[in-house]
Design brief:
Oligomer: single chain
Distance between the termini: 30 Å
Largest sheet: 4 strands, mixed
Number of strands: 6
Strand order of the largest sheet: 1-2-6-3
Radius of gyration: 16 Å
Strand content: 15-25%
Number of helices: 4
Helix content: 25-40%
C-alpha cells in the first residue's frame, strides 16, 4: 500500500542530484515468498533493505525475519535499515531475538528524541521523532556461516 509513495520518494531523491553512487530501486517483497522474489532476480544484488513501521504484530515477526535472512543470504554485505516505533515491548523483544537467532546484529541504532547522529546518520533537523521511534541498522554477524541461520 505504500509502494507508490516509496517510488515517488526514490525518484525525487535521485533526481535531486544527491551525488550518491549507484541506483535506487524499489520493489515489493512478500515476506512469505522471499525466495520467489529473489529467484526472479538472480543477478541483482542489494546493498540495503529499508523497512519502516513493519514490526507491530507478533504474528509477523517470523515471516519478516525469515525474509530478511533470505535476502541477506544472497547479499552478505546487506544492511537492513528498520525504522521502528515501539507499540508493544513483547513484539519488539520478539523481533530483536528473532533477528539475533538469524545471525543478525545491530551495527548501530539511532534513537528518537535526540538530535545527534551515529555512523554519519541523523534525523532531519525538521523531524526529530520522539523516544518511541528508533532506527536500527542490522548486518549479518561476521561469524554467520554461508546461509545457515
Amino acid at each position: 500500500y505504500c509502494l507508490e509513495a516509496l517510488e515517488t520518494a526514490a525518484r525525487l531523491t535521485t533526481s535531486a542530484g544527491s551525488g550518491l553512487p549507484g541506483a535506487v530501486q524499489t520493489a515489493e517483497l512478500d515476506w512469505a515468498r522471499a525466495d520467489e522474489f529473489l529467484d526472479a532476480r538472480p543477478q541483482e544484488r542489494f546493498d540495503v533493505v529499508l523497512a519502516a513501521d513493519v514490526v507491530w504484530l507478533i504474528e509477523l515477526v517470523e515471516l519478516l525475519t525469515d525474509a530478511l535472512r533470505a535476502v541477506a543470504d544472497r547479499n552478505p554485505a546487506l544492511q537492513a535499515l528498520v525504522v521502528h516505533q515501539t507499540r508493544s515491548a513483547n513484539t519488539e523483544a520478539a523481533f530483536l531475538e528473532a533477528m539475533k537467532s538469524r545471525s543478525f546484529e545491530i551495527a548501530w541504532e539511532l534513537p528518537g528524541g535526540t538530535d545527534g547522529s551515529v555512523a554519519g546518520v541523523g534525523w532531519h533537523k525538521d523531524f526529530v521523532p520522539d523516544g518511541r521511534i528508533k532506527l536500527w541498522c542490522f548486518v549479518l554477524r561476521k561469524d554467520a556461516s554461508d546461509g545457515a541461520a
